[in-house]
Automatic annotation (TrEMBL):
The species this protein was found in: Daphnia magna
InterPro entries: ARM-like (IPR011989), ARM-type_fold (IPR016024), CTNNBL1 (IPR039678), CTNNBL1_N (IPR013180)
Function: Component of the PRP19-CDC5L complex that forms an integral part of the spliceosome and is required for activating pre-mRNA splicing. Participates in AID/AICDA-mediated somatic hypermutation (SHM) and class-switch recombination (CSR), 2 processes resulting in the production of high-affinity, mutated isotype-switched antibodies.
Entry keyword annotation includes Repeat: yes
Domain called Beta-catenin-like protein 1 N-terminal: residue spans: 60-165
Pfam families in UniProt: CTNNBL (PF08216)
Cell compartment(s), UniProt: Nucleus
Protein name (record): Beta-catenin-like protein 1
Keywords: Coiled coil, Nucleus, Phosphoprotein, Repeat
Length: 556
């Protein structure tokens, strides 16, 4: 044959089976794989047949078409109205009842109730359509759908309970709830009336996170709690009291590698503690402070390996800060050697340093921080804090915290120690301001002028703006603009001038004259500070502090 014939030559194609058979095989096999995976926890898989391929019977085709129709209905939910929803719920109830009856009748024969379980799982999947029409939530509640659904959280087959969790997560998605707020309120009321948090926690205890589906179930459970707390903040207390706080602490304590669920646990814990005093108390009662310190100790000499792990570390630091607002937890923090851990983190100069600085500030502040202040001086904390006071680290070394935030924490810690320390600890603290030719006093004056200049800029901006704001709003803006740090710096100046060596006051006055500053500016700032004390909680302690500041002003 010539070249043209060679190029156009095609060998005879003789397929082993026709295309229709191949399509039939692929379309029938896929659902089979899903069914096998779904039933792994309850039914033993059947042995694979070694027989040669046999094309699927024609009888399977209608089942395939039914599935396609169901899928289309799931994708285009324009047809889902009140009537069709009631029909779906009725079908759902029937499948729940059928599965319960078969499980009771044949408890030791999984093959007898396997098919009903598959039907139940399919019914749960179909109910995802409800999440696309939140205006029908009221109908679902009236039809007792929520109580039936929550009852399945305790189903013997965890695949069913996980499917329920996934559905609840979709129903309570925050964007969906915001679409129809009145109907969403009805749904949330129904969930809370049925003790949804307690049921979810009970289900969490039996999920095995080594399996991907159940691990996803844990994640979705936490997502449900987050959704509910965002709409109803009071759910934070209910969830904690119904066992979620204890479960989270147990999950954090578990010696397992870092994963997404551990990160999510730290986020939910932060939410639970942030605005709920009762949860802070409960955390202390279940030894939560020790668990948090143990988890943070991992990062004292090594940085987090990933951005997600760093986020978890920051969440845990925030949790410690929130917990220290509850006064008895400060004693637990002290006895758990929290101060030593924070001191070590500050010395190691790792990424944990920023969080340690925030925690230390919370632990030492206020009247209830007196014991911690004394202990911090005893463990040679002054050797750690004053090098940081002298030089604010470069932005790369204090990643995630601005220079102003950093200096505010440092200055606040020193001010707290001056307020609380007595005897030899106070003497050691005051002595620091005379060391190395008063270098720390010079640094104090440097910070005074830095934040005084910032405040002047803010005051000028406020004068130029035409916004009608009350005095409290203006004062808050000035505090955020640098006034708060300036007040702390000037308070330290008054304390060291009144109680320290005479040379300290001479150095302060000399620096003021050199830089064109005046004693009057310090007096005005501190009088304003004293004038805003004495209100709110611990009013007696604040009143004493106010009188103390006025006495310092008289001496200055």
């Amino acid at each position: 044959m010539d070249v043209g014939e060679l190029l156009s030559f095609k060998p005879k194609q003789n397929p082993k089976r026709d295309i229709a058979d191949e399509e039939g095989e692929s379309e029938v096999e896929r659902p089979g794989k899903k069914q096998k995976q779904f039933l792994t926890s309850n039914v033993k898989p059947s042995q694979k047949s070694s027989a040669t391929y046999i094309a699927p019977p024609v009888v399977e085709v209608p089942a395939k078409e039914d599935l396609l129709k169901l899928l289309e209905q799931d994708e285009n939910n324009e047809g889902l109205d009140e009537t069709s929803l009631k029909r779906m719920i009725l079908n759902f109830d029937k499948r729940v009842l059928k599965n319960q009856e078969l499980r009771v009748k044949f408890p030791d024969s999984p093959e007898k109730f396997m098919e009903s379980e598959l039907e139940l799982h399919e019914a749960i999947q179909l109910m995802h359509a409800l999440a696309t029409v939140p205006e029908l939530y009221t109908v679902a509640v009236e039809q007792k759908f929520i109580s039936t659904l929550l009852g399945l959280l305790s189903h013997d087959n965890t695949d069913i309970s996980v499917a329920v969790v996934n559905l609840l997560q979709e129903l309570t998605d925050i964007d969906t709830l915001n679409e129809s707020q009145d109907e969403a309120a009805v749904l949330i009321d129904a969930l809370l009336d049925q003790q949804v948090c307690a049921l979810l926690v009970h289900n969490l205890d039996r999920l095995n996170e080594a399996q991907a589906e159940e691990s996803e179930g844990v994640h979705n459970t936490l997502a449900i709690v987050e959704n509910l707390t965002e709409i109803r903040p009071e759910v934070c207390l209910q969830a904690a009291q119904q066992g979620l706080l204890s479960w989270i602490m147990k999950r954090l304590k578990a010696k397992s590698p870092f994963d997404a669920n551990k990160l999510y646990c730290s986020e939910i814990l932060s939410i639970l503690l942030q605005g709920t005093p009762e949860n802070r108390q409960l955390l202390g009662e279940i030894d939560g402070i020790d668990i948090l310190l143990q988890q943070l100790a991992i990062f004292k000499r090594q940085d987090p390996k990933t951005g997600e792990e760093q986020e978890m570390m920051e969440n845990l630091f925030d949790c410690v800060c929130s917990s220290l607002i509850h006064v008895p937890n400060r004693d637990k923090f002290l006895k758990g050697e929290g101060l030593q851990l924070m001191n070590l983190m500050l010395r190691e100069k790792k990424m944990s340093r920023n969080g340690a600085l925030k925690v230390l500030n919370h632990a030492l502040s206020g009247e209830s921080g007196r014991d911690n202040c004394t202990k911090f001086v005893d463990i040679l904390g002054l050797r750690t804090i004053f090098p940081l006071f002298m030089k604010t680290p470069h932005k790369l070394k204090r990643k995630g915290m601005s220079a102003e935030e950093y200096e505010e924490h440092i200055v606040s810690i020193i001010a707290s120690m001056l307020k609380s320390c007595r005897g030899s600890q106070r003497s050691r603290l005051l002595l620091k301001f005379t060391e190395n030719d008063h270098e720390k006093t010079d640094r104090l004056m440097e910070l005074h002028f830095k934040y005084f200049d910032k405040l002047r800029v803010i005051d000028a901006q406020l004068q130029r703006s035409n916004d009608e704001e009350d005095e409290d709003e203006i004062y808050l803006k000035r505090l955020e603009g640098g006034l708060f740090t300036l007040q702390l710096v000037d308070y330290i100046i008054l304390e060291v001038c009144a109680s320290g060596a005479p040379t300290v006051k001479q150095r302060v006055l000399h620096t003021l004259n050199l830089r064109g500053g005046t004693v009057k500016t310090i007096r005005e700032i501190m009088r304003e500070y004293a004038g805003n004390l004495g209100d709110g909680s611990e009013s007696e302690a604040k009143e004493e502090e106010k009188q103390h500041i006025l006495q310092l002003l008289d001496k200055f």
